[in-house]
Structure prediction request, 211 residues.
Amino acid sequence: MSGKRKAVGISPPPNPWGDRRRVRVGLLGGSFNPAHGGHRHIAELSLKLLGLDEVWLLVSPQNPLKPVAGMAPLARRLASARDVAAGNPRLRATAIETRLGTRYTADTVARLRIRFSRTRFVWLMGADNLVQMARWARWPRILATVPVAILARGPYSARALAAKAARRFAASRVGDGRARALAGRTPPAWTFLRIRLHPASSTAIRGQSQP
Prediction:
């Protein structure tokens, strides 16, 4: 990170017990193993394209679909997410799932909606995740709980729009021209954002760090 970004500082994580603010918040979940510029890229584009007030980088204690082997400790991954978010007060890195006691996204978004009762949440994820979303625990409940924004990612976009989740909820898709109103829609509601791609990859970064 640049000296300028560090000087601006890092926004505090959200209060795990909730608050009463009326804000629109994007939830960008992931392992962040490690976090990188691509995560900041999609977070900042989401702020702009979806009219959000904040984006929270939700650092997962352990993704149930990913192996434990090769997963850096939570503290290290959270630190990398904080570094990536530094300098933009509207980006907040957090490991709030450890305080919520949740493991699956369906449970996390349900608990957040209770604790942050006035907040309008939007779940953010890359097209690669939509491809395999049908493997997630109680995945239809996620779309029934919060609006979802899918962000284009490399070669996955075409496959994502043909995936089981996209087909199941085809009637609930919102055109990207109306994406700024997504946070205020009653779920199920989802949109696909064709954004400028970023080359960074956690897998590639881990590969470069190997001896």
